[in-house]
C-alpha cells in the first residue's frame, strides 16, 4: 500500500512539473514573439512613420489618433505580462523540483533514481527547446530615438542549427554530443539502472557516465562563455537577456547530479 501511494504521489508530481513546464515554455515563446513584434516597430522605417504620425496628431490638436503608438504600447504591456507569467510558472516548476529532491531523504534510492531521472529528462527537454538567450543590437539615432539594428533569440537547439548553417560543423557537433546526446542517453540509462539494478551492465553504465560526466559539463561552460561575452559593454549598443531555457537547463544539471549520486549509492548497497 505504501509503495502504491509513493508511486502515485511521484506520478502526480511529475504531471504537475510537466504541466507547469509546458506553461512556462508557452509564455516564454509568447514573450519572444511579442519582443519580435516590438522590434519590427522599431526599425528606421517604422520609427520614421511613427514620428510623422506623432506630428500629425499634434497638428490636428488630437483629432487624429496615432494608432501605431497605441499598438506599440499594447505590445510592450503584453511582453511584460508574458515575462511575468513565464517566471511565475517557472517558480512552480522549481517548487516541484525541490519536492523531487526532498524525496531523496524519504523514499528508496531505487524509486528516487527512476522518478528523479524522469524529472531530469523533462528539464533537459524544455531546456533545449526554450529560448536561452535574447540578444538585441540597437543604436540611438537623432530624431528617431532607439533604433533596433538586429534581434536574435535562440535556444540551444536553435543555436546548433545556426552554427551548422554557418558552416561551423565541428563546434555544432561538439555541442550536439555533449549538450544533447550524452545527457539524453545518460538520463535514459539511469532510469534503466533503477529498473534493472541486478543487471550485470548496471555497474558498468554508472561507472561510464561518472567518467564521462566531467566532459558533459562542457555544455555549461559553453553557455557561461557566451553569457560573459554577450554581457560585455559594447558602447551601449548590445543587450543580452537570459531566457527561461537557461533555468530549465540549470535545473537539469542539478537534478542529474543528484540522480547520479543516488544511482551510485543504490548499486553499492545492492552488492
From TrEMBL:
InterPro entries: PqiA-like. The chain crosses the membrane at residues 89-107, 114-137, 169-196, 208-232, 244-263. Keywords: Membrane, Transmembrane, Transmembrane helix. This is Paraquat-inducible protein A. It comes from hydrothermal vent metagenome. The lineage of its organism: unclassified sequences, metagenomes, ecological metagenomes.
